[in-house]
Amino acid sequence: MARIRLFIDHPLAAGQPVPLDGDQAHYLGGVMRLTPGAVIEVFNGRDGAWSARLVQAGKRSGALEVLAQTAPQRDPPDLWLVFAPIKKARTDFIVEKAAEMGAARILPVQTDHTNAERIRQDRLQAHAVEAAEQCGGTFVPPVADLVPLSRLLDGWDAARQILWADEAMAGPADTLAGLPRGPWAILIGPEGGFSDAERARLSALPFVSRISLGPRLLRADTAAVAALALWQAALGDWR
Hints:
Its main location: cytoplasm. The chain has six helices and eleven strands. The chain is of the alpha/beta class.
């Protein structure tokens, strides 16, 4: 059986007692049927991964005792994913895959053609936590609340380049050869694409680079995964 991993928002060090909330205690004791003495792996996004012994798992609370570090902290490259939310299940998919593939921050944006007027930021953050638990990561990317794309661009730091996966450029996939390393963001548009006004603004920004993701039009969730893979292979920690 694969080792059970749990994200714990608590300092971690050898001998450190760690309280469990009701959901965590229920998961370990009620769902996974662990008994006191069982050893799991925990991480907090800052201190690497640690083994921890279950001390108690009741219906409303529980406790762990931290034993020893099992892996150092491994942070992702400085890559953000900016995307327009789509249908619920596909938005969940985008957040999960972004966490698995090493996005450092996830930013949902509202565009002229975005159907969703609001998101459940807490639910999407929970999906990012679950993805990090399952993929063996030690970092959980923060998921921001939904903001208008125009407002995000108004306050954008020009030192962070934007890689725009432009559906209008369908053709041979770009390799990203020659693009500089450093802080980047990947931008994925909504179903139906960006409006003419948004396209004009993005095209005029000196820190925006347009790329093609191949000869076929991709759904937004597929495009997010494809763009993340291209960037990680060329400029990220897959090299």
